[in-house]
Amino acid sequence: MAQPDRLHNWFGLVFALxxxxxxxxxxxxxxxxxxxxxxxxxxxxxxxxxxxxxRWLREDSGLDALTVDGLTNPSAAPRLLRRGQSLLLVLxxxxxxxxxxxxxxxxARLWTDGQRxxxxxxxxxxxxxxxxxxxxxxxxxxxIGGIIASLADRLMTHVDDVLEELQATVLRTAHAGTQxxxxxxxxxxxxxxxxxxxxxxxxxTPQRRVLSQLAGEHQPWLGDAECRLxxxxxxxxxxxxxxxxxxxxxxxxxxxxxxxxSSETTGRRVYSLTVITxxxxxxxxxxxxxxxxxxxxxxxxxxxxxxxxxxFLLLLVLGQLWxxxxxxxx
Length: 330
Hints:
By secondary structure, the protein is an alpha+beta fold. The protein has 2 domains: about 1-260, Beta Polymerase, domain 2 (2-Layer Sandwich), CATH 3.30.460.20; about 275-325, Methane Monooxygenase Hydroxylase, Chain G, domain 1 (Up-down Bundle), CATH 1.20.58. The protein has 8 helices and 7 strands; from the N terminus they run αβββααββββααααα. The protein has helices at about 1-10, 50-60, 65-70, 125-135, 145-180, 185-215, 225-290, 305-325; strands spanning about 15-20, 25, 40-45, 80-85, 85-95, 105-110, 115-120. A 7-stranded mixed beta sheet has the order 2-1-3-7-6-5-4, sandwiched between helices. Strand 1 and strand 2 (about 25) form a beta hairpin. Helix 5 runs parallel beside helix 7 and helix 6 packs antiparallel against helix 7. The longest helix has about 70 residues, at about 225-290. It is rod-shaped, with a radius of gyration of 35 Å.
């Protein structure tokens, strides 16, 4: 089984299915996608990392240049474009590749006219693979509208899983930040979490709007059940955005608290050093003045001079402490 999969990927076709209308699909290849197409609904999934997928889209798919650009744009944001009974839909899912940074998302690009569904990927999307396996086993959606709604639901399920883990990490890190004495690493962890959440919000905010538009579509191939599912996914997307906002506020509050504690600690240390300096400044002046090696120092020959000097310095320190305490500085 591994060799045919590699051949399909090499030529840009991940899989193609003719739907049987009962939850299953018949696998087909490149040769079945050229020429007149039967009345059965067809799902074609392409890998954009291979030039043959781009060639088929430009030359054999029958799509106009604007639609092809929308399907192949590497930086496509979530959006929905309607042209008559056809839709161009871009949704985002969690990037689960090994070299992906936490919070990175990849695009699932879809075009359909109700008879054909063409989807494109630049990275692996487990949601698409799971749906393909269900159709292969005969337990998947019965039509293209069901595939689109189910795919949006699965993409959001993966987002929910990541969001739940992210929120738990935020709470755990925030708790550690309020207890730890050395918080440099915790501040860095909080900043990383905030960047991750900002990236996710950047994608999920327009995706909620796109899903709401999809739920309001009136297409003959998009039934009421599919529209309701799209609406539910849009609400889940909204909850995810709100959860990211709340988690971001927790990290911001924790960072502010850590910075305030650090500022207060630094202020206390600087204050203590200032008081110590103020106390020892006159002592240093007197000892320096009396320590110069010149004639004329009072009582230089008196054996009690050193003891008297020490008592005088002690009284001076006590007087300074009394004065600082009276002014409220101690």
